[in-house]
Amino acid sequence: APERRAMTKPISLTRYLIEEQHAGRINADLRLLIEVVARACKTISHAVGKGALGGVLGDAGTPGAASINVQGEAQKKLDVIANDVLMEANAWGGHLAGLASEEMDHSQPIPDAARRGNYLLLFDPLDGSSNIDVNVSVGTIFSVLRCPDGVTSPGDEHYLQPGTAQVCAGYTVYGPSTMLVLTVGNGTHAFTLDREIGSFVMTTRGMRIPEDTKEFAINASNQRHWEAPVQAWVADMLAGKDGPRGKDFNMRWVASMVADVHRILTRGGVFSYPLDAKCRDKGGKLRLMYEANPMAFLVEQAGGAASTGRQRMLEVQPTALHQRVPVFLGSRNEVATAIDYHRRHD
Ligand code: AHM
Ligand code: MG
User: Fold this and answer.
1) 253 or 73, which is more confident?
2) Could you please report the per-residue DSSP string of 276-303?
3) Which bound ligand lies closest to the C-alpha atom of 263?
4) Residue 45 in marked binding region
5) ipTM higher than 0.85?
6) Backbone φ, ψ for residue 305 (5° rounding)
7) Which residues are CB-neighbours of 294 under 8 A, at least 6 positions away?
8) 66-75: long-range contacts (C-beta < 8 A, 24 or more apart)?
């Protein structure tokens, strides 16, 4: 007789969240908040997937008058659509005291007391949007904080909590398949969107980033603008087997942080967006609250490390909602090596 193999049925995101609630790790409000974000990401996934057929590619605004966001960057149509979808979905959910987006100048409190909850949601609605028009992966990144006690109408200052205060972080990558990667502080787990059924199904429980790696991600066109420690670190990797590192390295750069971090969570590697002459005045290129902190939480929960090069990312005390930071994250031993180069050069 053919051997009967024990079938372990994959669980849905909904079931995973209910189990976390029963284990006392999240409450019903946070569970429902994550469900609302996941539902919004399905809508964004659908819009991204339509591509040119949906008329959603290209710049927002009118020809000759491109719309510019708070970061001083031209907005893509899909940046605006993704932001609207997330705003719309979350404003009436009842679990938030306020929300903040990379695409909006200021955070927004939830005005209606009947629809107000205790959490603060931050998101980058469509990260890597320079890749939209060329059909390369983009993503949504989000982070959840608690609204400070007694605050009913949170302002920007109430979001300025270090990354260690995050109660949940995640991203959705809109790639060949759409995947949601999530942590509520109990490991990092990956869910793949089953498009026919319309639900996220857990496909990896407990992602683990290998401690060592031979793969790095950096925009090498900025090389001449980097600081001395980064110059030395990358030069030594490029020197390969015969150099001080004694091994050959490979390089990958998607230019969508979500896709680069997803690769690192899947097979290891180190991602870096250091200070350079172009972004030094701003403190870095990537945003602490919408990009660096949620990714740092996910990476640490998968056994990796995340740093500014000089400080653990999650311990940075934010001073502004749209603050930028240098980023080094991924395989813990390689991040430690990058930190070591900073220590030696400082
Ligand atoms: P965005 O939020 O405006 O899309 O910018 C962030 C993106 C990251 O996804 C990516 O790592 C980086 O910018 C790419 O930068 P570069 O264009 O210098 O390669
Ligand atoms: Mg971004």
Assistant:
1) 253
2) -TTTGGGT-SEEIIIIIHHHHHHHHHTT
3) 1
4) no
5) yes
6) -135, 155
7) 122, 141, 142, 143, 163, 166, 169, 170, 171
8) 69/102, 69/103, 69/104, 70/102, 70/103, 70/104, 70/105, 70/322, 71/102, 71/287, 71/322, 75/103, 75/129
Tokens (6 digits) for 132: 């939209």
Q: What angle do CA 326, 269, 48 make, to 5 degrees?
A: 75
Alpha helices in the chain (DSSP H): 13-22, 28-50, 77-91, 228-238, 257-267, 293-301, 332-345
pLDDT in tens, 138-147: 999 999 999 9
Report how far apart the first and last C-alpha atoms of the chain are (Å, whole number): 69
Instruction: Quick: pLDDT tens for 295-346.
Output: 999 999 999 999 999 999 999 999 999 999 999 999 999 999 999 999 998 8
β 96-101/270-273 pair status: unpaired
Q: Which ligand is nearest to the CA of 124?
A: 2
pLDDT at 104 over 80: yes
Strands in 305-307's sheet, in edge-to-edge order, are: 250-251, 215-217, 270-273, 327-330, 305-307
Cα 285 to averaged position of ligand 1 atoms, centre (Å): 8
To the question of whether residue 88 is assigned a binding role by annotation, the answer is no
